[in-house]
Design brief:
Blueprint lengths: L7 H7 L4 H10 L4 H8 L2 H4 L3 H12 L3 H4 L5 H17 L7 H17 L3 H22 L4 H43 L7 E6 L5 E4 L2 H6 L3 H6 L3 H5 L2 H16 L4 E8 L5 E12 L5 E10 L1 H15 L9 H18 L2 E9 L2 H8 L1 H16 L7 E4 L4 E9 L2 H15 L3 E3 L2 E3 L3 E8 L6 H17 L5 E3 L4 H18 L5 E10 L5 E12 L3 E3 L1 H11 L2 H21 L6 E5 L2 H5 L3 H12 L6 E6 L8 H12 L3 E7 L6 H6 L4 E4 L1 H4 L6 H16 L3 E5 L4 H9 L4 E3 L9 H10 L4
Parallel strand pairs: 11-12, 14-16, 16-17, 17-18, 18-19, 19-20, 20-21
Antiparallel strand pairs: 1-2, 1-5, 3-4, 4-5, 6-8, 6-11, 7-8, 9-10, 13-14, 13-21, 14-15
Helix pairs in contact: 1-8, 3-10, 5-7, 8-10, 9-10, 17-18, 20-21, 21-22, 23-25, 25-26
Length: 738
């Protein structure tokens, strides 16, 4: 038990914590009764999860030897689990009063006492946030605002608790120092501090304890024969203050304390806390000093680490959101004084989720670190770059005279990030979308500037990614549109608002009708037609793509069977897959069930994958694709050549065809680069026994080029745009080449 456990109220008092202080802290964190109510509403979800969380939590920490040593036996572990389970529910109890604070102080002091380091203690809160994020999502899957409000409330109370944790550690360390100083007054030999006495007239040392040599390393003769050596050992930045303050206080006959740094005999910098007592004669006149010098280097390092962790991102070592807000406040004040501008650049890496999902989070972390290093070299020392989210960065540019200066820096950043990135066997081609807001034109406060830069960044993504967009007032309308689409998307499937169109695919030589590609469309009863480029990313992000993808596959297969029954028996149906679908453990069973229920021959079904999906080299994905191929279903790589093209992917996976992206088709035959790439893809596909399809064919010249270079099939507006199932029947009826 902690030595402070007997009177936790006294500890709280010494820390200045009472009901009034608690209220101030909540006010600073903007924690309201509404926040407490939101957290209380999670109780019904948390009650069943406390024990499960506790088991998961201790399974995790027992993987670390240092932490495992703090749980000596099963009985102790059971007690810890029960305590952890209680805190899991107390955290969202809503009653954050003085008793709650005393309990947290008690826990913090106990953790410090048993030797739990701050990095483990504070790091454990990440597990709480992850678990509660899942609970909040479970509680409010369709209520985005309440989801965000509840998570904000959770972040506030967790920050409240973390502050208490830090204070208990600092308090305990300070108490340790105070206790050590008291012991030093009674014990001179064998304690972990330097005790010395000096003559006030000569400032020669009359006594020095053996610990001086161990702590500072200087031989004993330095202390006894070199009177001024210790003054010279104090680092120059601290020397003047230390000497002047000591002379002033000693001259006035006052005991005093001070902290300063010295350079040890081995060159190390050592922090010392010195407590000086005046030695006086019978007349009360000072004759000397008696000092206790404690090595507080570790304490200073801990304080520095805690301060650093509170202001910097652990992965990239960049400033975090807290520091960012402070820097923007400073930048605004400076801009007002100098009549200059402040630029806020909001960056979001393009396709980063694909890298994380496909290559793993360890590769994602390496990408973030590499990108951080590239960003640092693009800005000046007076500017600030911060990581504010998973793949989000914010750059603050100060002393800006013209908006064009911002554009130049942003273009420099785009070029720097777009350089190929080699991580082991992976060659990646990163890019980012950048949104820019300018103070004072686009906002007068931190929140508005960040919100508008974020909105501009989303506009950059909507316009194709890897580009820069300045904030414009109408962008806010786009933001509202995006939120509306996400909200409506959750109900669209149940309301039967999705339909499929089909784009015909033709044999390039005979122009025989050989298949179709199913393309989803969203007909909203109020908004009208919503483009797939607008709702598919939202479906991916929210997870709705799994159920939507299953609906598309089933609907397309039923339609193909209907065409067979109408006399068109050999039409192949191509359906696009998403990364999220392929990651589902039930994917193979879902495909098999659709084929069985609809009666479509698997040989007439082809599933289209993107190159990025094939970056995932997990055995599970490989087995799922082979299982689908063994059913007889074809597998095609869509938009080949635009992402992470690699022969190793083609040879590793059971691919039956590749589709040449329309960005290449558009350039042929005149664009030499596009023509060369197209010929290469056709040749490679044929060498590997794969069917080659070119999409986006719009001119006779393109079709002729593809025919001459032995491309197998084509699709595009030259022959037919995507049409409804009804209109496709008309096309089939008009064609005698099916």
């Amino acid at each position: 038990m902690s030595p402070h456990s007997g009177n936790i109220t006294k500890v709280a008092k010494e820390l200045g914590i009472d009901e009034a202080e608690i209220a101030v802290r909540k006010l600073f964190l903007e924690f309201s009764e509404q926040d407490a109510a939101l957290l209380q509403r999670l109780q019904v979800f948390a009650q069943a999860s406390g024990e499960e969380f506790s088991d998961s939590f201790y399974r995790h920490i027992l993987n670390f030897t240092e932490l495992k040593g703090l749980s000596p036996d099963n009985d102790a572990l059971d007690r810890l689990k029960k305590s952890q389970s209680r805190y899991f529910t107390e955290l969202i109890d809503g009653n954050y009063n003085f008793d709650y604070v005393k309990n947290r102080l008690q826990v913090g002091l106990t953790h410090q006492f048993v030797g739990l380091k701050p990095k483990w203690y504070l790091g454990a809160y990440r597990k709480y946030l992850s678990c509660f994020l899942h609970l909040i999502w479970k509680a409010y899957p369709d209520d985005r605002q309440t989801f965000f409000d509840t998570f904000q409330a959770l972040m506030k109370i967790v920050t409240f608790d973390m502050a208490l944790a830090i204070e208990t550690y600092i308090y305990a360390d300070n108490q340790t120092i105070a206790s050590l100083e008291q012991r030093i007054r009674n014990l001179v030999e064998g304690i972990d501090a330097i005790v010395l006495e000096a003559d006030i007239l000569s400032w020669g040392f009359t006594f020095i304890s053996p610990q001086a040599m161990r702590i500072l390393g200087f031989p004993s003769e330095h202390w006894t024969t070199r009177t001024a050596f210790f003054q010279k050992a104090v680092v120059p930045e601290d020397r003047a203050f230390a000497m002047e303050y000591t002379m002033q206080e000693t001259g006035a006959g006052r005991d005093h304390e001070l902290e300063y740094r010295v350079i040890g005999f081995d060159g190390r910098t050592i922090w010392l806390h010195e407590r000086v007592n005046i030695v006086a004669d019978d007349n009360g006149d000072a004759t000397g000093i008696r000092s206790v010098l404690v090595d507080i280097t570790r304490l200073k390092e801990t304080e520095g680490q805690l301060a650093y962790l509170a202001t910097h991102d652990e992965l990239t070592e960049l400033p975090n959101r807290t520091t960012l807000y402070d820097r923007i406040h400073q930048a605004i004040a400076q801009a007002d004084r100098s009549q200059t501008l402040v630029g806020i650049l909001f960056l979001d890496l393009d396709r980063f989720k694909t890298i994380n999902d496909s290559l793993g989070h360890h590769i994602g972390d390496e990408v973030l670190q590499a990108i951080s290093n590239r960003l640092i070299v693009c800005i000046r020392e007076v500017d600030t770059i911060a990581r504010v989210g998973g793949d989000e960065f914010v750059i603050v540019l100060v002393d800006i005279v013209r908006p064009n200066d911002l554009a130049a820096t942003a273009q420099k950043i785009l070029q720097a990030i777009a350089q190929p990135l080699n991580l082991g066997e992976h060659e990646l081609f990163p890019s980012t979308s950048i949104g820019v807001s300018i103070y004072p034109k686009d906002g007068k406060d931190v929140q508005t500037l960040l919100k508008n830069a974020d909105a501009a960044m989303y506009r950059a993504k909507e316009k194709g990614k890897n580009r820069l967009e300045f904030f414009l007032p109408e962008i806010n309308e786009a933001v509202q549109r995006r939120l509306t689409v996400e909200m409506q998307l959750r109900h669209a499937l149940n309301r039967n608002e999705f339909i499929l169109h089909y784009q015909p695919q033709y044999d390039v030589k005979s122009l025989r009708f050989v298949g179709v590609e199913a393309l989803v469309r969203w007909q909203h009863p109020e908004i009208g037609t919503i483009s797939p480029t607008e709702f598919i990313p939202a479906a991916e992000e929210t997870g709705i793509i799994v159920s939507l993808g299953e609906w598309i596959l089933e609907t397309a297969c039923r339609q193909a069977v209907a065409w067979q029954q109408a006399g068109y028996a050999n039409l192949r149906m191509s359906v696009n897959l998403s990364t999220r679908q392929l990651s589902e453990p039930s994917f193979v069973d879902m495909v098999k069930a659709v084929i069985n229920e609809t009666g479509l021959s698997p040989e007439l079904l082809e599933l289209e994958l993107t190159e990025s999906m094939l970056m995932n080299k997990s055995q599970e994905v490989l087995e799922r694709l082979f299982a689908v191929r063994e059913m007889g279903v074809g597998l095609s790589i869509d938009d080949f050549g635009t992402g992470y093209s690699s022969l190793s992917y083609l040879s590793r996976y059971p691919i039956t065809s590749v589709k040449i992206d329309q960005s290449f088709t558009k350039g042929i035959p005149d664009d030499i680069r596009a023509a060369t790439l197209t010929r290469t893809i056709i040749s490679m596909g044929r060498e590997m026994g794969m069917r080659v399809i070119a999409e986006g064919v719009e001119t006779e010249g393109q079709m002729k080029f593809l025919d001459e270079h032995r491309c197998d099939e084509i699709q595009g507006f030259l022959l037919s745009k995507p049409v409804s199932a009804h209109d496709l029947i008309i096309l089939l009826a008009q064609s005698d080449r099916v």
